Amino acid sequence: MKIMPMTAVARSDRGRVREVNEDSVAVLDQHGLVVLADGMGGYNAGEVASQLAVETITTSLLPLYNGDSVVFSDEVLESVVEDANEAILCAVEENPDYKGMATTVVVALFGDRQVHFGHVGDSRLYRLRNGCLQQMTRDHSMVQALVDEGMFASIQEALDAGVKNNVLFRGLGIADTVEVELGCSELVAGDLYLACSDGLSNMLTDREMERILLESPDELEMAADRLLTAALESGGLDNVSLALACPQS
Fold first, then answer.
1. Euclidean distance between CA atoms 196 and 35, whole angstroms
2. Which of 197, 186, 22 is nearest to 102 (CA)?
3. Cβ of 150: how many Cβ atoms within 10 Å?
4. With b meaning 16 or more CB within 10 Å and e meaning fewer, what string describes 189-207?
5. Model-level pTM?
6. Which CATH number fits domain 6-234: 3.40.1180.10, 3.60.40.10, 3.40.190.100, 3.40.50.720?
7. What is the pLDDT of residues 14-36, one digit of tens each?
8. Contact 69, 93 (CB under 8 A)
9. Angle formed at CA 107 by CA 67 and CA 30, multiple of 5 degrees
10. Where are the domains of the chain?
C-alpha cells in the first residue's frame, strides 16, 4: 500500500484534576500513522499501559515500511494491536505493581487514498468533511451499548439519566485476547482527521469541536491549541490528548 504523508500535530495534557498524564500519542507524518492511547487503572500504571501500546504498535508497524509503501492489511492492524495487548499483559506478569492497568487505543493509517483505522475502548477518530464533524469510531462502553439497544435515544440522554460514561467493555490488558474494531474510509481532498482521548470528547460536544476546527481552517497548530484550551476551560477533569492529521493529496 502506498502511504500518504500528512501534516499532523499532537497535544497531550494531564488536565486540571489528574496528577499524572496517563495518555500517550504519536504522529509519524511521513508514515501516515497516528496512534493514541488512554491509560486505565492503577497508580501510574495507566501511563505505562498507554506508552506500551503506542510503542508496541509503532515499532511493530515500522519494519513493514519500504520507502513510500507499507505492507498492510486488516490482519496486520489486528496483529499489531494484539501485540500491544500481549506486551501489557507480560508487563503485569513481570511487575505486580502494574496489576489492573489497561488502556484504550485508536490507530489510523493513511494510504492508497484511504484511511484505515482500528480501535479498542472509547478513544475516538473523527473526520471533518465539508464543514461537518463525524465520529468514525464507536465507543466500546456501557453508555453506548444502552443507546444501541434503544434504552436511550442518545448518549447525552443516558448521561442525564445517571449512566456512567467510564465503564468500558473492551481495553488492552484486560484479557488474553482482544477484539479490535476495524474501519476504512475513502479520503477526499480537504479531509481533516481528529483522534482524541475521552478527556477531550467528554469536555466538549461534537458541535463545539466542529466549530473550533472550522474557525481555524488550514491552521492545525492553532486548532490543536484551541481544542486543548477549550477542554481545560470546560473543567479539564481528565487527561486531554488529541492528534490532528491532514493527509497530503
1. 10
2. 22
3. 7
4. eebbbbbbbbbbbbbbeee
5. 0.94
6. 3.60.40.10
7. 999 999 999 999 999 999 999 99
8. no
9. 25
10. 6-234
